[in-house]
């Protein structure tokens, strides 16, 4: 076990006969923004659900800040703020009520709750909208509300599953700006999944390319692009080279996910 934020050693995970994760090795260093990239079905969500102790894994395979996830499930969960792909905000509650609920769930001490809730909403630019019902929020505001919910317990590791999926480009930019600001202010480690290669290229310190349950290329976006050896290459080109095809070919289910998030864009 290491002292890194996350250490994964030879992770395998099957759903029935489907090998969702097929031997992943990964280290996320403290304080970095690490992007797990790949198409639908690559195994990204399964990998992060294993890291967040939501799936059973054998002893010694995953550690979070040196704690063995298999043995210290609850302690690990307390270190993590997780925003899943599915909607985690309640449209019938106001912004402040949604975040307060998470503060209670994550045992933020009663006397600190009010200040922590305000701070999390402020960090996500939602102070003015805090009193409104979440169902009146735009898709981008809901995503930021979900980030505020995850941040209210001051986690050491923020895990985001497709944080910008289904949002328009302006809302996507705003979510990335907020993630960068949180890291700059708190030094928090961020592990996220995305299939938006361009956004990952701009915002992640390091990325890992995942394809069919395996994590192949790992490095800074620049390193991976430079390996290709032509000047105007992009991370998308790196992925194509690595997987033998464009990202889009594996994207059949993506439209559904996008549609789900769009529906969720307006709650209620
Ligand atoms: N609960 C489940 N039951 C059965 N199969 C599953 C389940 N969850 C995932 N899988 C399968 O495991 C494989 C990896 O899925 P996973 O969700 O980890 O991929 P992903 O890269 O995160 O894609 P997405 O962006 O769609 O979530 C896929 O073949 C998927 O169909």
Automatic annotation (TrEMBL):
Keywords: ATP-binding, Nucleotide-binding. PROSITE patterns: ABC_TRANSPORTER_1, ABC_TRANSPORTER_2. Residues 244-268 are annotated as: Disordered. SUPFAM superfamilies: P-loop containing nucleoside triphosphate hydrolases. Residues 249-259 have a biased composition (Basic and acidic residues). This is ABC-2 type transport system ATP-binding protein. Residues 6-237 form the ABC transporter domain. PANTHER family: LINEARMYCIN RESISTANCE ATP-BINDING PROTEIN LNRL (PTHR43582). InterPro entries: AAA+_ATPase (IPR003593), ABC_transporter-like_ATP-bd (IPR003439), ABC_transporter-like_CS (IPR017871), P-loop_NTPase (IPR027417). Pfam families: ABC_tran (PF00005). Gene3D superfamilies: P-loop containing nucleotide triphosphate hydrolases. GO terms for molecular function: ATP binding; ATP hydrolysis activity.
């Amino acid at each position: 076990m290491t002292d890194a934020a996350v250490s994964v050693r030879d992770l395998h995970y099957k759903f029935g006969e489907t090998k969702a994760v097929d031997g992943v090795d990964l280290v996320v260093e403290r304080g970095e923004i690490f992007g797990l990239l790949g198409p639908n079905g690559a195994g990204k969500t399964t990998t992060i659900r294993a890291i967040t102790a939501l799936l059973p894994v054998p002893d010694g395979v995953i550690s979070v800040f040196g704690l063995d996830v298999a043995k210290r499930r609850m302690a690990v969960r307390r270190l993590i703020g997780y925003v899943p792909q599915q909607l985690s905000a309640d449209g019938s509650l106001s912004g402040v009520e949604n975040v307060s609920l998470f503060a209670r769930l994550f045992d933020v001490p009663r006397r600190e709750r009010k200040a922590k809730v305000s701070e999390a909403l402020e960090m996500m630019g939602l102070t003015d909208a805090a009193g409104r019902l979440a169902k009146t929020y735009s898709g981008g505001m809901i995503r930021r509300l979900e980030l505020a919910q995850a941040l209210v317990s001051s986690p050491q590791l923020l895990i985001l599953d497709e944080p910008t999926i289904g949002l328009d480009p302006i809302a996507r930019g705003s979510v990335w700006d907020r993630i960068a600001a949180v890291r700059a202010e708190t030094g928090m480690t961020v592990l996220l999944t995305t299939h938006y290669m361009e956004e990952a290229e701009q915002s992640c310190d390091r990325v890992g390319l995942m394809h069919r349950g395996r994590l192949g290329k790992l490095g800074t976006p620049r390193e991976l692009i430079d390996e290709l050896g032509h000047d105007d290459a992009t991370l998308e080109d790196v992925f194509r080279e690595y997987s033998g095809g464009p990202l889009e070919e594996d994207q059949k289910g993506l439209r559904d996910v996008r549609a789900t998030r769009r529906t969720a864009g307006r709650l209620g």
